[in-house]
Each structure stands twice: as C-alpha cells, then as structure tokens.
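#random but structural
TW: two for the price of one
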Amino acid sequence: MGKRTARRAAMTDTDALHAFPLFELELGEGSPETGFTLGIADIPPTPAPQCEQPARIGREIAADEPPLLDDAEFCERTVMALHERGELGYVKPSDEWVNQRGVPLNDEHQEAAARLHAAGRLPGYDGEDDAEPEGADPKPDPAELAELEGLVNVEPVDAEDLLVDHDIVIEHSALEGTLLIGSRKGDGVYDALKNAGYGWRWWRTAEESGYPAGTLFLPGSRDKAPRLSTIDHTEQIIAKVAEEQGQEIKVAVHIDGTPRDQALVIADRRVRAAERAEALDAKAGRRAGAAEGRWRIAHDISRRWEGGQPIIMDHHSTRKALRDRERMDNHMRKSVALEKEARLVAERAEGARRTLANLDNPLLMARWLREAEAELRAIERGLNGSKGRRFLGTDGKTVISQEPDNKPATGRRRQQLLLDLMYLIPRMEHARAELAKAVTEGRWWGGDPKQIRPGDFVLIRGQWDLVEKVNPKTIRVISIYMPTGLTYPHLEIRGHRTAEEHEAIRTATLAEAKGANA
C-alpha cells in the first residue's frame, strides 16, 4: 500500500479537509502514532489530526480494521467537509467549484462535486443573475466597424509614391505582412527598433520581391491582423530618434487589414514551406560538400606522416612540418564545424517538411480550433464587456467575493479586437470544414465523447484500449503496456466501440486467423 493511500485511510471526515490537495502541503516528521503531520500554506496552523485508526504504514492490515476509502469516496468526503465548513463555492461562467479563496478544485474533486450535486447532496444554482440584461447592445458587425475606422478595404498605395513626400513608410497587408520601408544603414532607426524588442528584422531578399534594400519586416505578420500597438510604438520610436538627431523624419502609415481567402492562405503556406525545405536541403548539401572537401585536404596533408615519420626538431624540415600540422588541424576543425552546421540545416529542412505535412493533420487542426474558440470568447468579452467573476456560496446566492466588471473596449484597443475577429472567424470556419472533410475520408473520428461509457473500447495511438473513466475533457484507459491507467485528451480518440462490438470483431478476427492457419 502506498503512503498516500495509508494516510487517507487514517483520516476522519473532518480531518479530510486538511489533506485536500488544493493547497500546498507541508509534511512534517509527525508523531509515533500517525507517522506524519499535515499543514496548509497561507492558512493558520492547526493541530495535527488525531487519527482514530492506527497507522497503516509499513505493516500488515488486520482483518478487523475498517476498509480503505477509494479515491472517489475520499474526494466526495473532502468536498462535503468543505461544504459543511461553508468554504465551498461555485462559479457559474466557468462552471467550476472553488474553495473559500476562489481557487478552483482539481479535476477529481470537480467530478466529485458534480456527482454530489446531481445526487442532491449539494445545493443547486439557478444562475438567474448571469442572464443577458434587457436592452443590451447586439454584437457589432466587425467588418462594418473596421471599415469605418479605415482599416479594411483600403485602396492599395505604392510605397514608392509615399516615399516621395516621406522618409519612412510603415505598411501592412495580408500578403506581405508588416514592413518598414525607407530606413538606411546608420540612420539609427534599426538600432533603436532592435533594442525596443518588437522583433523588427532586416529583409535580406527585399530587392528580389521588389522592395528597396534595407526594408525591415515583422516575422510572422503575414496573413495576421496588424498589431496596431507595435505600429504606434514604432512611430514613437522613430520620432524619438529624429528628436535625438535634431532632424525631421516624416513617417507615413498605410494599413490594409483586409484578410485574404483561406484557400489562398493555405496554398501560399504550402508553397513557402516547400520552397524553404528545398532551399535548406540545398544549403545542407553545400555545407556537407564543404566539410568533405576540408576533410580531404587535411587527409592529403597527413600523408607526409603516413609512414610513421615523426617531426624532427632542429632539422631543415621542422618548420614546414609544423606548418603542415597546423594547416591539417585547421582544416579538420573547419570540417567538423561545417558538418555540424550541415546537420542543423538538414534538421531545419525536415522541420519545414513537417510543417508542410501538418497543414493536413486533423489533430493539430482540432487543437488549434479548441484554442481559437477560447480566443473568440475572450475577444467577444473585450468587445461587449463582461461581468466580473462572482464567487458564490453553495446556496447559489451568497456572494463570497466580487470582481469589478469589464467595460467594452474603446479606441485603438477596440480596433485591434475587431481586426483579430475578422481574421479568426474565417480560419475557424476553414478548420471546421477541413475536420468535416477528414471525418468523411476516415482520417478523423469526429464522434461525441459523451457517448463513451466505462467498459467500452477506444482507439488511441494505434491501440484499442479499455475505457476506465470518461472525464469532461480527458479519458482514462487501461493499457496493456502500463500497469496503471493512462489519461489522454478527447482529441486523441481515433475510434470507439462498445464492449459487444469489440468482442464481436475480436471473435471474428480470431476465427478468420484460425481458418487461415488451418
């Protein structure tokens, strides 16, 4: 028996609160009777619990001793102990049970509280105060509001035309991302932006794309909403540089935040990933070839000693022998460095190929979609405002604590949220369409985890495993490769069978194999 289970068995219902793993536990040496003491950080110390049962650590359990509590029953008793002490609360928006400090319970105790609530042992929660108030403003149309601000559907302007009357142009488009055009070496702009930490970098191939030499770009800004705060701060930095140099630097800003069609975006990403992989493969080949050449030169130099002739000091050949040894050493070192660089570049090329392959990976799409849904909720809360979280007692009415309400965003912040929304919604629609296509093609399960019951079988990572428990976001299975169960997120499920279906398929497979071997 593990120490943790033995400690749980030695506690009463009241003492269970002090072992509740919501807080940071501090284990002491304890008394000879219990073998341990428990204390909770940030909470006034309490006497060590006097266990009514004898300690069960390091000895056999007698037949007349009371049975141990399983994890589920222990969690339920812990939740009830919190409830009886008036230290259990419920947060409606996030559907979470919390303690008296507003800290959410862990997954096991969340499930225990849900079971107790369903059984009627915990008070209900009607949540009428969280209803949408009458007369609330409808959700704004992001396209219309963003167009009013002059951030979308902007007429294209050539940067060279803007440079006639301005020294520097900052422009953004979905196709090229955020660019800074007009900076020159030694003008102090790049050094100031580099130290500011916004990520501006030299675009080495700007001339190949039709832009002037010295153009800067923000990595990862293609097909993304423009970062208005970064652009505004960049203007301020350039103005500060001009003030320090005692000259005037005219800056023009041209932003077109109109998103492109997702089909074009994905097609461009495929092309860029393929081109990147090809270019890195060529670079890795050049580095490997140079490393081989350096090694051959060192090997040729070493032939003068292949017969075992040592370097004879104070001989007429000493100076040349020492020079050859130094040359050989230098070539060998450069060969090793070039070979190491070739391996690193080859790994980068493999990463580009993985990026290309992951564009069609339904698991990554589902993971991104889950994160995007959370981001969408955050954007809507920012645009429409939201009520501050309330931590209620178990009666559903007593307010333990109240956070201030969040007002709707205004000004530049509102513009940024609208642009983020315009880019996010099409990507989410495209991801859902691709997942539906993957379900049709059999590359994705797409079922409802709520239909899975303990005792069923699920396909996870190529193996059909027995379901032990189904949680709201994870599933616990019994694997033949592990002595204990394994927990996976629902996104890992690739198939589902009931126990009867699995047994029927297993029986048919065994019969077919037996017939083939007969």
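TW: number two ↓
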Amino acid sequence: MFYSRFTLSLAKVGVAIAVLPALVACGGGSDSNSDNKVDQGETKLPTSVPELTWLGESSAKLKKASSGEFSSLLKNGVYLNSRPSDKNDSSLESPVNASPVSEGESSNQFSSTNVVESGVDEGDRIEYDGNYLYIAAHSAQELAQNAVFKQYVRVMKRTEQGIEEVERIEASENLYSQQELYLNDGRLASVFKYPVLTLDVSPASSSTASDTSVVANTFLNTFELSFADVTTPEQAEVLKQYRVDGNILDSRVINDQLYVISEFDANYSTELSDDLAVYQALYQLNVSELLPKITDLETGTVSPLFDPSSCYIPEDTVVTDSANTITTITKISMQNPSSVQSTCINVPTDGVYASQQSIYLHKRFWPSDAVSFDDLSQTALHKFSIADGNITYSASGAVEGSLGFGSNFGGMIEPLIVQNVSDAAFRLSEFEDKLRLVTTRFSETKGMVHQLFVLEQQGTNLELVSTLPNESQPTPIGKVEDNGMVEENIYAVRFMGERAYVVTFRRIDPLYVIDLSKPAEPVIAGALEIPGYSAYLHPVSDNLLIGVGQNVGDFAFLSEPAVVDNNDDDTSNTVFPEIGAKVSLFDVSNMTSPTLIKEHVFAGGYTPVEFDHHAFSWVKVSDQEFRMTLPVESWEATILADNSSVWGNINELAAFEVNTENSGSLTYLGSSIATYDDPTNSVPYVRASDDRGVIHGDTIYYIHGNFVWSSLWQSPDINTGPF
C-alpha cells in the first residue's frame, strides 16, 4: 500500500449556500477591513486572478490575524472551493468527533456522568441530581407511535413507589439525531447534533410515497443549543435557544461555562462563470457574509458567530494561501446564556481534548508530498488556555502517528489491520503541566508502531520531553510476531496519575502498564496476556483496574480451549472460550506483574461501554466497596409451535460490586431486564448504545429508550417499570 498526503484527503464537496445580506452582530465588534471599498476609489479591483494554493496542513504555530489577513485567507479558500476544476484538490479531511477518559466525578450518594477528566463535564443523554432525572427522549421510542417526530426531555422525580414524570421540556422544534444534556446549578443545557431529513408522513399528508415530502424545519449543517431554568423542575422554562451554522465537533462544561467546538466550511454561490468575475465579486464582498451565523431563535436576531479580528491563522501563511475551513471555540455561560464569546481558528480540526485549564485541538496531517510504503502521518496539536476565563492561544506542536481516528473508507486508505478501534479521547492526558499522548502509525517493516509521547509547553512550542519506545527502552508497545512485526492495534488507553494502561489486541489481550513517574524516562513496567480484549479501562483504586470488552479470539472457530472463571463460587473449567461481552478485574498493585483476579462473560452479548464510556456508571460507596453498572444487549431465537424461530433482543443493565479488601474481588449481582406489559409489536426497538444506568444508594435506575426501570441493588433482577 502506498501512502501519500493525498491518501488521507477527501475531495471537498462544495455545498453552495445563498449569500445573505450583511447583518449587524450583537456584541461581535466591527469588521473594518472586510469591505474593499472600490466604489469610494480607495482601492482598485484586481485585473487577474493570482496563483492561489490551498494552505498546507501542518503543525505551524498560530498567530492572531488582522481582519485583512483573515479575510484574504478565507476568501481565497472560498474562491478555490467555488471553482469546479479545483474541488478535487482539497487536502481537508472530514471532521471526526472524539468524544468519545480519566477518572470521572461521582459522589458517595449517587452516580453521575462518567467523564474524561475530573472537573470537565461531558454531555450525555441523561442527567441526574439526586432527586430529578432528565432523559433526552423522542417520539420514535414511545409505545404509542406519534406521526409527528418530537424531541423532548422527560423530567422524572424520585418517589416512594419508584419514579414519575413531572414535566416535559421541548427544547427544539427542529430535527437532530442526537441530543446531549448538561446539568449545572439549576440550568439544563441541550446540545442538538447532526441534523436529519425526515419524510412528512403525518395523517394530513398523502399516504402515497410519491407525495411524502421533506419536513421543512430541518436545517442542514447546523446544530442547536438550548438553555432551560430547572430551579423548579416541575415548572421548567426555556431561557435561550440558538441555532449555529457548522458541524459540532465536541463540547464540555468547565467552571460553569459551556465550551462548544465546531467546524464550518465557508462557501459562495454565484451565477457568474468567469473566474475573474467571481474573484472580483468575492474581493468586494463583506467577509461577514461568509462567516458562520448564530441565530437567537426567540428574537430572530442573526449575527456572525465571531468577529474576524478574534481569529488565528498559521504564522507561516502567505498572501496566496487559501483556506475556507474554520474551527470555532464558543463559550456560553450556563447561568447567563446571553453571554457568548467565540474564538476562531482558520484551520480544520479532527477532535478535542480538554482539561480544567486547557483545550487542545488535534488534526492528523501528512507533512510532505513524499510517497512511501510507511505511514508518515503526524498529529498537529494546538493548545488554548481557558484558565483566566478567556480563550487564549498558548502553543502548538506535532508528534508522529495519529490518535486512532481518520477516514478509512472501509480499509482503502489503510491496511485492514489499521482500524478505528480506540477512542481518541483516552489517548491524551494533561498532568502536572505536561501533555501525554499515545499515537499509532503503520510501518512496512515494523507493522503497527505505537508510541507514547510526553510534551511540555516552552514559549509557544509544545516541546518533546520523552518518547516510548526509545533507545534505552526499545521494547515495542504490542506483541512482536514471528515475522518481526507488531500486528496488534490499540483497543484502550487510560492515563491515571503517574501511570498509563494500554491494551493491544489481535489474538490475545496484552495489558501494558507504563510507569510515568519520571516524565523524561517512561518505561513499560509490566504486561499481562489474556484472551480477548478490553476496550474500556476504569481505575477502582491505585491497585485495582476494571476492563470492559470482549472475550473473543482471532477467529472464534479456531479458538483454543482455555481455563475460564465465570462462576461466583470461584471454580474454574477448561472449556472453549465463550464469545461475548466481558468484565475483568485486574490487580495492578505490582506494576511489573499485573494479574487477572476474575472475569465475567455475557455469552453472545455486547456492551456499548466498549465504544461509549458514558454507558458505564459507578459510585464509590466506601474505601472498600465500589459499585458499577453497564448495559448489555444479546439476541436469542425463540422456537414457535410450528418449529419456526423468531429472533429477539434482550436488553439488561448488569450490576457489579468490587470489594477492595485483601487482593480484591468482583461479584456479578444480576441484571435489571427491560420488559414491557404491552404486546411485542407495540414495543419499539431501542439500541443498547443509548442505555444508561443510575446508582443512588441501594437503588438502581435502568434507562432504556424513553423509559425507566427501578430495582434494589441487592436484587437487580427484580424490577418495577417501565416508568
């Protein structure tokens, strides 16, 4: 397989948008350099189109651009994107969300959203404050199907009988496939992502397919933000609603501020066909008309999302460079959602990592036009400080390899063994003013090259402190096969303080423990090989680690028999391994010799925790007791009277308890299973990826679709519901 810069590229699709009249920004500042004032004779129209080039992706440091510099770079990019002959020359990739994990916060009373970094909240489909449960719901998951699709938030209150609905909040009239919630001191924020087209099949419309039409209130390439006052949840009131142009990459809440990172491709629609005429039209255009807009849905006020004078561009940009992709970091106060501040960066972004002090934007790029059998891609990093309440550029840098993401087109871009199997969010961690990260690339001679980097800010540079493997520690991360190559990809990474845990997998699951106590001298302290893999790692204590993944070999029918401990009486059997979701407890008290304490396998099942850490709920009851839940979905065939079979799914919320005394123990208590009293044909299919659990004292709430089931911790299989 040949690799080149263009191997990573996607042809940019020039989606034409109508250019709207200029609008006055509220609080956005003036744009004194956006208009080239030809009519006043202050400047002349260009008489030819200069030789423009797309701005190459790199790790160049950023600089604060003047309005003129930003306007020139953006308009050049819009011009190139508007010309048919240039649309296939883009070096931009599609945005990839990386949401998509360091220790979250959970009180001793009830579980909360499982997050990447302590003190950095993430949006999820549920929020819980100990008395009220908020569920992002929609009409497609109701038992009585509604002809008109609706999105809303169910507000549920704890009662002696279980839990009951006390209010519904309809935060958007438009159609988005995902709604994420944030709860912060009496305020509930809804983040609506990924607009969808839905056919209008309401009773008022014709029943024929040819007469169905796309619902009008769908806004493509937008996202929406809604803020509600839930100080008294029974009387919830929507305070502010925004619609924003662009595609959302990710969001966080830090210190009562909602940070939204989005990406926007500026475009220009015109009937002009002559290249010079198009270039002259853009030359005269006010740049604000090319910017993403933010619309206050209550007042109808439309404003540019940012002031062009608040933008950053690569410091090595020249006047003929062109770039029409804009990344924006927008900060909105949860308590005063009228307070909006945005900073723009005229470069594309793949994903986001955030700590309490910093936001990092990362982007995979190809550093040269060289063609190679090796993957020479790098990851660019741009650091922004949020410590003082402002969004301020700090530093940039780059490392070899990628964070496990990128457009793959089913294996055409990379070899089949290079798959997108690990969450990029787990691969970064800021600790004691240093950034640690793990990347992957492919080498023709070495196979998968997994590297750990430690970076430190020096001035405006993210300088390399150390890397692993290195000359003194050359052992690869990943098992070396007989052919001398590493064929295992990374399935999980978890940074915790002065340690990093890395799971690689192809046939077996090596769990690596990396000692980072000396940042300049990282070392692989120990490793453990077991069947299957862990896709999510969660620390219980300094000595115990939970792994969630799959018990699976390279090929199930070739699996060798193994000793499997899957019984609560601590007995073992030599059997062929069961294929299914697996929960493991590891002893990592001795970094040089991690061991498996116990594991439990759900035969034929999978858990969404493997790809979404929000599905994992936990609470530390005491220094000795740790409780956790995770959803599991499995399928089974029911044999009917005529010997035919019907396949059906079983959805459950599994409850586990970890005792940290002595060497530690893992106990499976049972599962709360989602069952309905209504006939089967009236129950909608709800995918397990949206399932969540809440632990509150000795009560478990299982959220499946729009509904809730309640059970006691000691007997999770005996539940009541749906509520």
